[in-house]
Model the fold of this input.
Amino acid sequence: MGTTQEQFNVGGMSCSFCAESIKKAYSRTDGVEDVDVSLAHEEVLVQYDDNILSEVEVKGTLRDLGYTIRDPDKAKRYEQQQAELADGKHRLLLAGGASIVVAALMGWMIVVMGRFESASLVMDLVTLGLALGTMFVPGRYIKQKAFQSLRRGIFNQHVLLEAGAFAGLVGGLLGLFVFPSFPTVHFFAVSVFITTYHILSEYTSLIVRTRASQAVQGLLDLQPDTARRIGEDGDVEEVPLDGLDVGDYVRVKPGENIPVDGEVVEGKSAVDESVATGESIPEEKAEGDEVIGGSVNETGTLLIEVTATGEDAFLNQVAREIEEARAMKPGIIQLADRVLKYFVPGVLTIAALSFLFWMIAPLAWGGGPNIQRGAFAALAVLVLGYPCALGMATPLALIRGGGKAADRGILMRSGDAFQIFPDVDHIVLDKTGTITVGEPAVSEVVALGADEVDVLTTAASAEAFSEHPLADAILEAADEQDVEYADPDAFGSVTGKGVRATVASDDVLVGKPGWLSDEGIDLSKGDADIERLQGRGLTVAGVVRGGDLIGLIGIGDEIKADAAETIRRMRDADITPVMITGDNERTANAVAKEIGIGRVMADVLPDEKREEIGRLQEADHRVAMVGDGINDAPALTQADIGIAIGAGTDIAIESADIVLMGDRLGGVMDAYEIGKESYRKTRQNLATAFAFNGVGVAAATTGLVHPVFAMLAMVLSVSAVLANSFAGQLLSGEGVNTKFALDERTDGEREDGRAAAD
Done:
């Protein structure tokens, strides 16, 4: 017994105020040692002393605050999110309907009757019923959050909302039963409107979060559900993975995923280990070599001894790294929330002091307590101080930026991405599948005793029956160049080395230079080219016909067409590009040199990638990470901004804040520019909102601001923020005609962009 760590996926968080409330609640709970909250991924990591607290009590704190704890299973979690969305929509329909009715009544009073005061007792009672119904039916959950926050001494947006709502309710009741001159309907209207607005803002946030997490695929789906275990008597038995123990033997056939971490005890095969290393060219495995669960057995049959199971297995370790990095990722407090941290208690204090002032101050000039003026002042302060425009300032800028990004095939999953991107000074890029295409392809054909077409024709004929990925690259190159080749008369594969074949009565060898040398082939005339091609990070295959070396084929992972231009744009923006890869140093340096990256980290494992990102952050750098593979997922989560290539794995996408649809690398800098512009709009919106709130609260303290005018001022502030967010976009045609931006992408990227926009 001692320190225990629990992680929860939490529903109901809508802004960083929620994250701060959860942190404060746990910090004031005896037995809690540490808590980390990730708003972007809606996760909470709690470390506590299990001698003092139980898991039930730890969960109880979240539930008391009004938040839900979702099922750890991703499929069930998604169902819960959909249920939350349905509940939110139902609450909004109820509150919205009440608001429409109240607005109609107010309009009828002002326009038709030409008066602010209540027209009849029936109208007062109808409005009272709508206020009570809105506050205690769709708005009941807000009261739970506000009460539990107040009980713990936490002042947040829920407390301020309920202060305004109850102030309106009390003011209306005073007008109904005590002070006939009070504008009863308008007091009750305040309770309805601000409750509805809050429900609307939370529903909008929930929509964004639910739709952004639809790429829900489990990391461990890479592992088959069962394994083919070989018993001591040689019998084969299908068993579930959790039924395997260290020391068991399993057989894996060509094309199957390797179910567990282990060591090859029999067989030879090419194994695609990009799940761990990111390297697109398969590794040759033979007796004594280690294999990783989740990697793909390409060619031969392997007998594997299990060396790790459960939490010790590679994929489980990666999953744990992702969870820890996500939950412990430094929280980002939005610009508005930094101010709101002090704004909420400030507004409550000013409202209370305004009421007291008009109760006491008139005594100084011989009058009596002015209850109506004090009530007007307190309610108007709460209405004008309620951060409607402030709350909308950031989301509206993000919605505008998100729509613009979607038109370019970019999905901005997290508001933090807009907030942080302008401060990013290092962008770390994975190599395979990010800077490069991610598939082996022929980069160069060197003719040494024949022309290039002859070399490619001979190699393609020899490899026609091979199932090796490098053979596929040679055949694809031959097809692209319309080279005609025939099937070999005889064929044999030498695992991990190359192939032997008979082509048009000639003996042909295609394979590694070392193997060809062992076969007695003179490679001297190709030594310089072999060294040059390997220096470029290419895998070299020699082509031998009739005992003579006739050519060399360099095979590698092709660099994306826009990679060099993207790196140049980073440098122009004073951002330092860094390459990080599990590939070998020689290949990594060759690729980096070609596109202009000066700093390279090679031979890096998934957990080490995350550590490297952490070191940059500890050196006070803002870091964005770009990747596409499972081995990138922990680093994507650790980085201040994780950017996933949409053509990559689902777990990488799920771990990221930004997703680039398709495989175009230039989207990284497009996202940067959009994020920078959106942050500028956010600051303008906040300045506008604070101007309205500041002037409005100051004017409200006089007690001369009628509740209806306070509501109109609040509407004006929201309208000003809306105009700033979207007027320029409409005038410029952004988001209206995106033809030219879309035409710069491929057909597939256009479809992806449209899907993101939808």
User: Anything to note?
Assistant: The first strand starts at residue 3 and ends at 11. DSSP finds 27 helices and 26 strands in the chain.
